[in-house]
Amino acid sequence: MTKANVVEVENVSLSFDGHKVLDDVSFSIQAGSFTGLIGPNGAGKTTILRVLLGLLKPDGGKVRIFGHPPGKSHSFIGYVPQSITYDRMFPVSVREVVMMGRFGTIGLGRGPKEKDHAAVNEALSVVGAQSFADKRFGKLSGGERQRALIARALCVKPHLLLLDEPTTGVDVVSQDTFYKMLKGLVKNMRMTIMLVSHDLGVITKMVDDLICINQKVFVHGSPKDVLSDGVIGQAYGCEAEILMHDHSTPHRVVRPHDHEAK
Amino acid sequence: MLEMFSYGFMVRALMAGVLVGTLLAVLSVPVNLKRLSFMGVGVSHSAFGGIAIGAFLGINLTMSALVFSVVVALAIGWFSRRGGVHEDVSTGVVFATSMALGVLFLGFMQGSGIDLFSYLFGSILAVTEADLVMAGVVFVVVTGIFFYLRKEFLVDCCDEEWARFSGVNVERLQDLLHVMIALTIVVSIKLLGIVLVSALLVIPGAIGYMLAHAYKTQYLISIAVALISVLFGLVFSYSFDIASGASIILTASFLFLLTSVFGKKTG
């Protein structure tokens, strides 16, 4: 039995000031899968996420999320941005930031109710953020901040979680815990996850599916197939440099560039 | 000291001060968080153009200032989005244009009979019952809207992208905030003055920002600062016969200085 598609992207194109960022991009994501979206800098990874979130409108093509157009489905989607431009002095507590995740579902003019506070507490506990829930958001460390932003995304109990380079500025130990937590979400909460990353090594070990893009989709398949295909090199414009985490000591696998091999 | 409040004009000034002080304090929180302090200066100075046009046309000055300032407040956002320039640029342009229009229209009529000094710097003698009613109406409208959209204003101040993702129409919300600021400024001019009113849109929220760790606390501190400034400012204005705008703002500035020296939050 095939699983239902949560995300369907068909022939999506988008240009900024005449510069093509997405060119005829098509892919779909199955319910309950953990997908990694990879590609070099400027490949359009964040742009795709912003299209899925309804923050950018494509010039052409069709996007459906749970059968709805983007922007009409924010109560099903949790989103963890790459970083938020925030003010360290902004007087807002972690709990208040997490509650903002529920704002789209509370309704105009209304304040948070008991069930909203309960959902915030649950999300804080899933990511292990209760101990700093009443701290000012601006005082958090990189790892704590990331957990708070994930709690904000989780507190609507989303069916689809989209994460954009969520480990930027987070130390390696916290990153490890973080990926384990994501795996747990897929398994225990049957969530569908799509993660944008440039860190090929970690992501290929964690995900079920890999999509490699650079303006267009170069390859979509299991990490094993994608990596053995050699097509990643085309997408990146040179052979990929992969940091492997399979062994106790991380090491680099660097395939020679053409000019070096000769 | 209490005998000064046996005079009708002082009671009106105090009531107006409490109403507009609270309003300015509430709005000064998003003004600080969204860095709109220059917009406050721009909109308040543009009221000068509105008053001059009203005097030239022989219509109610507060009403003409109200309409003109609301148009200016919306124009700042429109020019910024239309031309792709920062809001401080469109504010700078609109602000100077309005002042120039004011000077032009006042020039058309020598001896307009307007007490320009009171309009520029505020006067405890200037607040009429009609002004109080107007301030009361604006108080109910602005606090009502602010309370109704409190979640949207918070998320827009904290993380604009998240606001868009949550379904907030950020541009319309910002236009609405500009209009609320314009309405509040116009009903505050009689007491605080065109030149000085914008300070109460900045200082209370700034002190709240420096001291508060949670969002609601910033509002409470901001309102307390504005009300203390109004009360002490009115007493100084009466006792030393100085323009009420100046005495209120100087009190607020003194509190800002104290907070900067002793009260800044750490971390």
CATH level-four homologous superfamily name of chain B: ABC transporter involved in vitamin B12 uptake, BtuC
What is the H/E order of chain B? Answer: HHHHHHHHHHHH
Strand content of chain B: under 5%
Q: How many discrete structural domains of chain A? A: 2
Tell me, what is the CATH class of the largest domain in chain A? Alpha Beta
Helix content of chain B: over 70%
CATH topology of the largest domain in chain A: Rossmann fold
Q: What structural category arises from helix and sheet content of chain A?
A: alpha/beta
* C-alpha-based Rg of chain A, rounded: 19 Å
Number of helices of chain A: 10
Q: What's the CATH superfamily of the largest domain in chain A, by name?
A: P-loop containing nucleotide triphosphate hydrolases
Q: How much helix is in the residues of chain A?
A: 25-40%
Number of strands of chain B: 0
Structural class label of chain B: mainly alpha
Determine the most extensive contact between two protein chains: A-B, 30 and 28 residues
**Count of structural domains of chain B:** 1
What does the model show?
The complex is a heterodimer of chains A (262) and B (267). With 262 residues, chain A is an alpha/beta fold. Chain A folds into 2 domains: 5-76 and 158-261, Rossmann fold (3-Layer(aba) Sandwich), CATH 3.40.50.300; 88-157, no CATH class. In chain A, 32% of the residues lie in helices and 26% in strands. Chain A has 10 helices and 11 strands. Chain A has helices at 45-52, 94-99, 103-106, 114-126, 142-154, 172-188, 200-206, 223-229, 231-236, 258-261; strands spanning 5-16, 19-30, 34-38, 60-65, 77-80, 160-164, 192-196, 209-214, 216-221, 241-244, 251-254. Chain A has a 6-stranded mixed beta sheet, with helices on both faces. Chain A has a 3-stranded antiparallel beta sheet with strand order 2-1-4, with helices on one face. A two-stranded antiparallel sheet of chain A has the order 10-11. The longest helix of chain A is centred in the last third of the chain and has 17 residues, at 172-188. Chain A starts with a strand and ends with a helix. Mean pLDDT of chain A is 80; it is low at 239-262. Chain B has 267 residues and is mainly alpha-helical. Chain B has one domain (2-263): ABC transporter involved in vitamin B12 uptake, BtuC, CATH 1.10.3470. Chain B is built from 12 helices and no strands. In chain B, 54% of the residues are buried. The model of chain B has no long low-confidence stretch (mean pLDDT 90). Chains A and B meet through helix 3 of A and helix 7, helix 8, helix 10 and helix 11 of B.
